[in-house]
Amino acid sequence: xxxxxxxxxxxxxxxxxGPVRAQPAPAQPSAELTVQMRPVADEKAVFATVxxxxxxxxxxxxxxxxxxxxxxxxxxxxxxxxxxxVADDKLLLQRAAIDAQIGGLQSQLAxxxxxxxxxxxxxxxxxxxxxxxxxxxxxxxxxxxxLRARISERQVIGQxxxxxxxxxxxxxxxxxxxxxxxxxxxxxxxxATVAEEDFVLRLRVPERxxxxxxxxxxxxxxxxxxEGATGGGTAPVPSFGKIVLVYPxxxxxxxxxxxxxxxxxxxxxxxxxxxxxxxxxxxxxVIPAGFIRTRYGLxxxxxxxxxQPGGGAAVEVPVQRGRERPTPAMPDGIEILSxxxxxxxxxxxxxxPAR
Length: 355
Fold this sequence. Notes:
It contains three helices and 20 strands. By secondary structure, the protein is an alpha+beta fold.
């Protein structure tokens, strides 16, 4: 009876626990691949420079002496951040003179208001003429207008002193600071040059390739060109982008084009990078590197004898590999020059045990 009791208990426990949900298995690379002849870009290596679309100067709005400098070459700044302070001692003297004038005008206004009050009192009592009251009221208006004018002039001086703060015109990175503390500058003189953090790769291609460059064409950077781009292993991971602008003017026999690639913010502005661009198309066989096994300097691929996926036995076929052909869909693509034919079914070789 005891085995039957245990079996019943297990059935009840499974019913209470509910249906068992299968856990999704991690994605595995395909074990087979059908070889297809497909058009590939006939790539050409060119050099491009990392440049900012907008390099703007931060200028001084007033003349004077640089009394404070808050940035240096290479600093990252935000829009509106203070970069330096330019001061002019004459502004302080002008403000002190206007303050003295304002004090005198305030005293005149107070005296004019006192005279107006006396003239109005005498006029109401019949002891004073109306003309005296009108003259006193005019004197109050004149003193009040003069005081407001001097206050406005003082505000202008204050605004000029506030404009001594040189602000960053945009967010980005400081490329150069051509002045030092104590430098005398004029209005409109450059205090710092800021590169907006909107970097592009600027390509200069010989004009014979002008017919192949079009907006939207893909470009490729070798993974070794990127700092630390290893993809979790030792092999560098390529980076891809596309051409966004082709300039209509040819400079020194070269066509200029801009391309956008993610991750350019870690580069130096003006750094040269090797880029692969399309210079035509041709048909080729490209397979993932995982389907190739190398032994004693020779490359082999496992090919189904009957040419059917999941079919008969697979035999090793020597192949001649070409250059790397990575794409966004196949980052480890390798061109095969000979040994494979269109329609062959490849089998991914098993991983060799560690020795």
